[in-house]
Design brief:
By secondary structure, the protein is α+β, with helices and mostly antiparallel strands. The chain contains 13 helices and 16 strands. The strands form four sheets. The protein has a seven-stranded mixed sheet, sandwiched between helices. A five-stranded mixed sheet has the order 11-12-14-10-13. Strands 8-9 form a two-stranded antiparallel ribbon. Strand 15 and strand 16 form a beta hairpin. Helix 2 runs parallel beside helix 3, helix 10 packs across helix 13 and helix 12 packs antiparallel against helix 13. The longest helix is centred in the last third of the chain and has 19 residues.
Length: about 350
């Protein structure tokens, strides 16, 4: 008989749960029953075990994802099962249980187990907790969807003013994406419980969590990196770059340490860096020499025009938005992470807390 994917998954979670329970020496026997039907639906896995004091029945709900919203759905389903088939302890199973989902389970009095080795079981005299195992089943499709170039346009708009109530139509228009794209981003954020909704629209409730995950899945090297050398000083190069691009109506914006120096000075820099359209033309106008090493100028051909969203002028030079600047700096070698934290601490957090839009493109 052909084994379904669900049966295969339940087998894996049963093995993981048995592995956790095996660490309790006084559990005398474990019996399991898969896909047990009740008047309230099908329980994925029932576990009966004997301890010195009594018999325990555990009900296990298997989810294909451990995202917070889906975890809450699983927990609610477990409570519904109890009305039809009384059991002693509820357990949520998913490929990976994140710290946030683990917190939800603990608050609801529900155990959990995943395939990464994390678990928490607390009933009777039994207490088992293993945490901190990283996610070996990173949901690449999910991450690719949320951090694709078009989806990132939506994220930039949301992060400019997280507390602002938004409607889907206006969000899609401002981000210059389709309504379907905006709706998909909203769903992915809702799965993570990073948005809230009321009659006036929805807003981003966990902007730092979003920014942190985005930075983990971002690299400025997604852009086409072009390295050059100039005899001018860094300050002169940046000034001339701004002047030439403004005169020739070429879109540009400083980023990296060039941008950080202007909005949250913390680190001295030895290289000018900017996003530029028409790079070859700009390099020619500035008399820049392309070099394989020893560069003091880096011009980035944007992987998407969204990098310019929220750019603003500082002292006559255009700088990317603080959010884009944070993303670019975070992955830089040397003191990039330090400079990124300065931008977060001195610019982004205060403006999020004040409810003021971080920047408006000029």
């Amino acid at each position: 008989m052909k084994i379904t994917q669900l049966e295969h998954d339940i087998d894996r979670f049963e093995k993981a749960l048995r592995g956790c329970l095996a660490e309790v020496p006084y559990i005398q026997a474990i019996d399991t029953e898969q896909e047990s039907m009740t008047a309230r639906g099908r329980i994925d896995l029932l576990v009966k075990l004997n301890s010195p004091d009594r018999e325990w029945i555990l009900a296990v709900e298997v989810k294909t994802s451990g995202q917070p919203r889906l975890a809450r759905e699983g927990i609610n389903q477990l409570w519904r099962y109890r009305e039809a088939l009384p059991y002693d302890y509820a357990v949520l199973a998913a490929p990976y249980i994140s710290p946030r989902t683990a917190e939800i389970c603990s608050h609801e009095g529900v155990g959990y187990v995943d395939l990464a080795g994390n678990c928490r079981l607390s009933f009777g005299q039994v207490f088992i907790q293993k945490e901190g195992r990283p996610n070996p089943f990173a949901e690449k499709r999910d991450l690719r969807s949320l951090y694709s170039p078009k989806a990132e346009r939506v994220l930039r708009v949301l992060l400019l003013n997280p507390a602002m109530r938004r409607k889907m139509e206006t969000l899609a228009e401002e981000a210059e994406v389709s309504l379907g794209q905006a709706a998909n981003v909203k769903k992915l954020l809702a799965d993570r419980e990073w948005i809230r909704v009321d009659k006036d629209g929805f807003w981003l409730s966990e902007p730092e969590a979003l920014l942190a995950e985005w930075s983990e899945n971002y690299s400025f090297r997604r852009n086409q990196v072009n390295d050059y050398y100039s005899l001018q000083s860094i300050g002169e190069i940046e000034y001339e770059l701004a002047k030439v691009c403004s005169r020739e109506s070429i879109d540009y914006a400083l980023t990296g340490f060039s941008g950080g120096t202007r909005i949250a000075p913390s680190v001295r820099h030895q290289r000018a860096m900017a996003y530029v359209d028409e790079i070859e033309r700009v390099a020619s106008l500035l008399n820049l020499k392309r070099v394989p090493s020893g560069a003091n100028v880096t011009l980035l051909a944007p992987y998407d025009a969204g990098v310019f969203n929220g750019a603003k002028e500082f002292d006559g030079t255009r700088v990317v938005s603080p959010v884009q600047l944070y993303l670019d700096l975070k992955g830089f070698r040397g003191r990039g992470a330090e400079a990124a934290e300065a931008v977060l601490e001195e610019v982004i957090r205060p403006q999020w807390q004040s409810g003021v839009r971080i920047t408006q493109r000029t």
